[in-house]
Design goal:
The chain has 254 residues and is mainly alpha-helical. It folds into two domains: 88 residues; 146 residues, no CATH class. It is built from seven helices and two strands, in the order ααββααααα. Strands 1-2 form a two-stranded antiparallel sheet. It is rod-shaped. The chain starts with a helix and ends with a helix.
């Protein structure tokens, strides 16, 4: 606004000078007399030309400044748009990982044999579970999956164990991406709160109970961790998952 007022003032002053100068310069004012100086037009033109050129130069200067400012604003808009596009891509990538994790948890299957009795006697039946209940049943029987918790080949022997460890490791990757990617804090809070919900209600409760029952024997002499018969790879993945969620959720809430 200040520059606009300056331009208007200079234009008004320049117009006044250009319009009034021929009137004054073609009359004898005593102390200033151009009436005997030859061609009046040449004289007037010669006198007013510098003023006109000066006004033109000033206008060009302000026009260039205005163009520079416009270019700066356009560049900022382009940069902001690029930033928004980059953030959208990052959010889409995180959301894809999140949906994959959610689908893996919700679709996890576990089948168990149960012995039932009826009027004719005892018989075996297969109960199929899915989602949080399947995870609970699976973790309740985790002690049967490893005679040696440190044996890495255990995960290759039992497909469901391998699948579940893969789900938790995907969760750990997701946590790292959410926290390190440049996205808005409210988006980070949303994903961490959702992950904490899945952890608290679908994954951790039974694992926590199993851990309490299996670690009464104390710390492992080989690694110093109180993992009982829980495969160490699963034990580490689960604890990393819980600790990371709790830590980042508290950090974002602070």
């Amino acid at each position: 606004m200040k520059k606009t007022n300056q331009i208007k003032l200079l234009l008004l002053l320049g117009i006044l000078l250009v319009v009034l100068s021929p009137f004054f310069f073609t009359r004898s004012l005593g102390w200033l007399d151009f009436t005997q100086s030859g061609q009046i037009g040449d004289t007037t033109g010669g006198i007013t030309a510098p003023v006109v050129n000066l006004i033109g130069a000033i206008l060009v200067y302000y026009a260039l400044n205005a163009q520079i400012e416009a270019n700066r604003i356009i560049q900022e808009q382009i940069d902001d748009q690029k930033k928004d596009n980059d953030e959208t891509k990052r959010l889409k990538y995180i959301n894809t990982l999140f949906l994959n994790f959610k689908e893996d948890v919700d679709s996890f299957h576990y089948s168990e044999k149960v012995r039932l009795r009826n009027s004719t006697g005892a018989f075996e039946s297969i109960n199929n579970h899915q989602g949080g209940i399947a995870i609970s049943k699976f973790l309740d029987n985790i002690k049967f999956y490893a005679d040696d918790p440190h044996d890495e080949s255990t995960t290759h022997k039992y497909p469901q164990l391998r699948e579940f460890i893969g789900i938790i490791e995907l969760g750990n990757i997701l946590i790292d991406k959410i926290y390190t990617e440049k996205i808005k804090n409210e988006d980070k809070k949303f994903y961490f709160e959702y992950l904490k919900h899945y952890l608290d209600f679908k994954i951790w409760p039974m694992f926590g109970e199993v851990s309490k029952n299996l670690i009464k024997q104390g710390a492992c002499e080989q690694c110093g961790k109180a993992h009982g018969k829980i495969p160490v790879k699963l034990y580490d993945a689960m604890h990393n998952f819980k600790e990371s969620i709790d830590k980042h959720t508290e950090a974002l809430a602070a």
